[in-house]
Amino acid sequence: MQFVDDNRDETEGKKPVTPQALPFRKLLSQADALDWTLMALGTLGSIVHGLAQPVGYMLLGKALNAFGNNINDTDEMVKALKKVVPYVWYMAFATFPAGILEIGCWMYASERQVSRLRLAFLKAVLSQEVGAFDTDLTSGKIISGISSHMSIIQDAIGEKLGHFLACFATFFGGVLIAFISSWEVSLLALFVVPMILAIGATYTKKMNAISATRMSYLSEATATVEQTISHIKTVFAFAGENLAIKSFVECIERQLGISKNEALIKGIGTGMFQAVTFCSWSLIVWVGAVVVSAKKSKGGDVIAAVMSILFGAM
């Protein structure tokens, strides 16, 4: 009896281990000097590529001002446009190598790091005790970890990270250019941008949670199929076909329920995002018309400010 009580005390003393979120910097733990150099070049390309969009809106505003200010004088209109066109060429020549650096460097660096992560993952799996393969480390989880999960990590530290930096540069560059073009319209737009960002952040958080849950259900279904096929003789010997089918169907039904929630959240999120965006457009354009009528700004500058902030926030 004393032996049973001791085991019970040990069991009660154990607390379930809750998985902790991995810091983002840990994803870059396998990077070497060449990888950091590639990521630095990719960051430079992402920033230049991201700034190209608000700069393009500013040049568009200058071109519209050239049309509006010289609508009755073709020669002056052409002269004014000739001052704007060279900057468009300069921007085109700058964005071409920037795009190559952004995509190429980030993808190459991520591929190099993920190859090392896959090797480290395999070494960690092979160093586990044999009993772990009967409980937590199923074949489905191992295959999902070395293929699907590693692909997600590669996207996170590769092209998507470069895209994030480009969007970051687009947003802050757009805010700066908007204030330079028309500070009245920019102040109003800054009150609207937080609503757009809040909707986008909520949508992203919900979709990430659903994606993680769906991946776990898919991993369970994959493990069920692989274990059934690999031990097919044992399954037939003990008449376990119906049990395997039932287990697989349960995983698929749970995944179907998650997919329904995903479709609902996508629809609501997209609808709210579009509604807020178009309402913001209408309000800001109306205020811009008032500012232009009061001779406090030009039409091209107002359009550049509106497009820089709103498209930067998207």
Describe this structure in words.
It is a single chain. The chain is mostly helical and 314 residues long. 84% of the residues lie in helices and 0% in strands. The protein contains nine helices and no strands. Helix 2 (33-69) packs parallel to helix 5 (159-181), helix 3 packs antiparallel against helix 5 and helix 6 runs parallel beside helix 9. The longest helix is centred in the N-terminal third of the chain and has 53 residues, at 74-126. The chain is elongated and about 90 Å long. The N and C termini lie far apart (67 Å). Mean pLDDT is 77; it is low at 1-17. Residues 40-314 form the ABC transmembrane type-1 domain. It is a multi-pass membrane protein. Its main location: membrane. InterPro entries: ABC1_TM_dom, ABC1_TM_sf, Type_1_exporter. It comes from Forsythia ovata.
Brief rundown of the structure:
The chain has 314 residues and is an all-alpha fold. Helix content is 84%, strand content 0%.
